Amino acid sequence: MSRNRVNLPLWNTETGWSKPKIFSSTDEASAYVARSLLLAWAAGIRRFYWDAWDDRDWCTLLLTSDNQHGNKGAIAYDVVESWMLGRWIDLCAADIYGTRTCRLTGREGEMYIFWNPDHRRNYRLPANARRVRMWQEVDLYGNAYQVGTRTHLINV
């Protein structure tokens, strides 16, 4: 679009996951949901729609359980959305080990999101973030843990 000087908002109107891929766990599926939202946002996609939340005949990454209530994937979607609201994404880049760091900024200051989709890795907070005495780590399900400024293990 930019090569042709088209300056319109970019939308992704149909994201999901179809058969035959089956995720090994609900945690793996939830991580995929979170990464999809964040990477689309970092790429400049203005609207992002998840298709087939509950189509059990077509997809294998469902965001509803059998009783039509949100499952862990839906919780992850909601948590990541709450991280995004009122913020903008400054940076989203991978290091040589595949560990991705996204920095979000808003009225409440900076927020960092770390992940490595391939394996568990230790990470160290960025230099400017280490000046803060105490950090809170929040997982994809909204569980919060107090952490210091040392090296931490990324949960994929």
Describe the structure.
The structure is a single chain. With 156 residues, this protein is an alpha+beta fold. It has one domain (10-153). 19% of the residues lie in helices and 31% in strands. The protein contains 2 helices and 9 strands, in the order βαβαβββββββ. The chain has helices at 26-42, 72-84; strands at 10-15, 45-50, 87-94, 100-106, 109-115, 122-124, 135-138, 144-147, 151-153. The strands form 4 sheets. The protein has a 3-stranded antiparallel sheet, covered by helices on one side. It has a two-stranded parallel ribbon with strand order 1-2. α1 (26-42) packs parallel to α2. Mean pLDDT is 78; it is low at 149-156.
Task: Describe this structure in a few short sentences.
With 156 residues, the protein is α+β, with helices and mostly antiparallel strands.
List the helices and strands and how they pair.
Layout: E1 10-15, H1 26-42, E2 45-50, H2 72-84, E3 87-94, E4 100-106, E5 109-115, E6 122-124, E7 135-138, E8 144-147, E9 151-153
Parallel strand pairs: 1-2
Antiparallel strand pairs: 3-4, 4-5, 6-9, 7-8
List its salient traits.
two-stranded parallel sheet; 156 residues; 9 strands; 2 helices; alpha+beta; 3-stranded antiparallel β-sheet
- Order of helix and strand elements from N to C terminus: EHEHEEEEEEE
Count of helical segments? 2
Number of domains: 1
| Helix-residue proportion | 10-25%
The first-to-last residue Cα distance is 33 Å
Structural class: alpha+beta
Q: Total number of β-strand segments?
A: 9
